[in-house]
Specification:
Blueprint lengths: L1 H60 L14 E7 L9 H18 L3 E7 L1 H9 L6 E3 L8 H16 L10 E9 L5 E9 L27 E2 L2 E2 L9 H84 L1
Parallel strand pairs: 1-2, 1-4, 2-3
Antiparallel strand pairs: 4-5, 6-7
Length: 322
């Protein structure tokens, strides 16, 4: 029995040490969520207004720019998948990968070749283990991205969509898969089409706000959410303005997606670590009860042995007296 009690005590000590680690990780993730939320809130107005400006310029100019014009026969689509660099975040990365797999199937059903770009070691490991081709990948900044990281990711994507159709490395569409931060308890994997922009009667990219076009008077700016889009004078030309604006649009959208993903990762990790901490507490209580039961059984056995020994000794003494 003594050996069994020692086993329980060792397990309680081990689980307690694990509980301290998970509790610390939960607290760290909780503190980082606040910072990530602030960054998301700070980047959203810029991305929204930039999308509005790009929409107004593209709609007002009527020019056919490479990043706003649908290909006649799109054959290749780039998919940017954002996952985490580290684990212990529940199903955060696996859910994003599942959303990317569903998007890949839809694109292939449409007869399009998928070119994959990855952010995060989890996505790289997933594709590497299955020996799937990856155009480019980036790791090391999933939990604390900066605008420089977004610019680094956006550069090859813009080059690919700017390349002449049919040439090596060119793509006709750009999609992004990331985890949208809804609340501390809810994070939703989503896929958005960023390029080419859908201007008339739709959205500036799948993730942008829809715009309604004034069909009866082409000189009027389009209205968005009840607001009138501004009119612009272009200097030197609308194409040059779009050349400058659209790369910034892609960078801002990728940056916002990276920030949303980082906030979602911290929230998922906090929830996973809280669950692990609660499970450790339950396991400690269960092991403590088992240890107490074993100790009580050991004490009962010792008392029984003492009583039995005393009774045997008394019987032996009584026999010798006779």
């Amino acid at each position: 029995m003594g050996a069994q009690i020692r086993v329980y005590k060792r397990r309680i000590k081990s689980v307690t040490a694990t509980k301290k680690i998970t509790k610390a990780m939960e607290m760290i993730a909780a503190s980082r969520i606040i910072k990530a939320q602030r960054k998301v809130a700070a980047s959203t107005p810029y991305a929204t207004e930039l999308t509005r400006a790009v929409t107004a310029v593209a709609q007002g100019s009527g020019s056919k720019h490479a990043l706003t014009t649908e290909a006649d026969n799109p054959t290749r689509a780039a998919v940017l998948l954002i996952t985490s660099d580290r684990g212990l975040a529940g199903g955060y990365s696996s859910n994003a990968i599942k959303a990317a797999e569903q998007l890949n199937r839809r694109l292939k059903e449409q007869g399009k070749e998928v070119v994959t770009y990855l952010v995060g070691r989890k996505g790289v490991s997933y594709y590497g283990f299955r020996k799937r081709p990856v155009a480019e990948s980036w790791t090391g900044f999933s939990d604390s991205p900066t605008y420089a990281h977004a610019k680094m990711v956006a550069e090859p994507l813009i080059e690919a969509i700017n390349a002449e159709q049919g040439t090596e490395g060119s793509v006709d569409e750009l999609h992004i898969v990331y985890t949208e931060f809804v609340s501390m308890m809810t994070q939703t994997p989503v896929d958005r089409r960023m390029l080419p922009l859908a201007i008339e009667g739709g959205a500036a990219g799948s993730g942008a706000t829809p715009v309604s076009v004034a069909k009866d008077d082409e000189s009027k700016p389009a209205a968005k959410d009840g607001k009138i889009l501004p009119l612009y004078d272009f200097e030197p030309s609308a194409e040059d303005v779009l050349d400058a604006l659209l790369p910034r649009y892609v960078e801002s959208r990728i940056y916002n997606a990276l920030l949303q993903s980082a906030a979602s990762e911290h929230a998922a990790r906090r929830r996973a670590m809280k669950s692990a901490t609660d499970n450790a507490e339950d396991l400690i209580k269960s092991l403590t009860r088992l240890a107490n039961a074993a100790r009580q059984a050991d004490i009962t056995q010792e008392i029984s042995e003492i009583v039995g020994g005393a009774s045997a000794l008394a019987d032996a003494t009584a026999g010798s007296d006779r």
